[in-house]
Structure to design on (199 residues):
């Protein structure tokens, strides 16, 4: 990895470690859903031999392919593409709020996860409670600090703002679609869902 790529930072890259830290022992395959410029897929490829990145944007996939060799790039819709397989790690960073049907998307991502594998979703949602707004205030301070001390990198993904679902709606939906899912709220306007599919 080049020094320039190592220094890149934005709100999504900040949470890549949640995915890499969750990789189960013995995992060999991963998929990055809504891969965009392929930064996470590239990180996963550094530790696993079998990594797929899927996105609807052909142009951004071409740039990702040029920068991150060794990843299987798929131009398509994860909801309908026939992979013919499952993955030990299913990752989705800032993508869930782009789906028309959040519950169907969660079910689909869960179905793509191999038995014993892990699904990690890092997403954005709409603040509706006092706790949400407190996290937002912390996010402003954290953003200002990180953007001054790191090299901010603008991603190429389309922006959906405000997100269509609130944090509480996402949490409730995930709990129903992915039993025993773990939820965590962060500053920088993000939450994380982590779910391990039963063996």
């Amino acid at each position: 990895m080049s020094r320039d790529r190592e220094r890149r930072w934005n709100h999504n890259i900040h949470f890549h470690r949640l995915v890499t830290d969750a990789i189960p022992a013995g995992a060999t395959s991963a998929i990055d859903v809504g891969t965009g410029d392929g930064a996470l897929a590239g990180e996963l490829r550094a530790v696993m031999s079998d990594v797929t990145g899927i996105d609807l944007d052909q142009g951004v996939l071409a740039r990702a392919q040029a920068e991150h060799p060794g990843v299987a790039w798929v131009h398509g819709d994860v909801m309908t593409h026939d992979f013919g397989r499952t993955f030990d790690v299913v990752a989705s960073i800032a993508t869930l709020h782009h789906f028309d049907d959040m519950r169907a998307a969660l079910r689909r991502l869960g179905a793509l996860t191999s038995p014993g594998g892990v699904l990690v979703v890092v997403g954005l949602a709409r603040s509706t409670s006092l706790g949400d707004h407190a996290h937002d205030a912390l996010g402003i301070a954290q953003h200002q600090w990180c953007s001054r001390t790191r090299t901010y990198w603008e991603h190429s993904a389309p922006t959906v703002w405000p997100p269509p679902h609130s944090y509480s709606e996402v949490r409730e939906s995930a709990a129903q679609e992915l039993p025993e899912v773990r939820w965590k709220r962060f500053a920088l306007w993000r939450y994380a869902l982590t779910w391990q599919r039963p063996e």
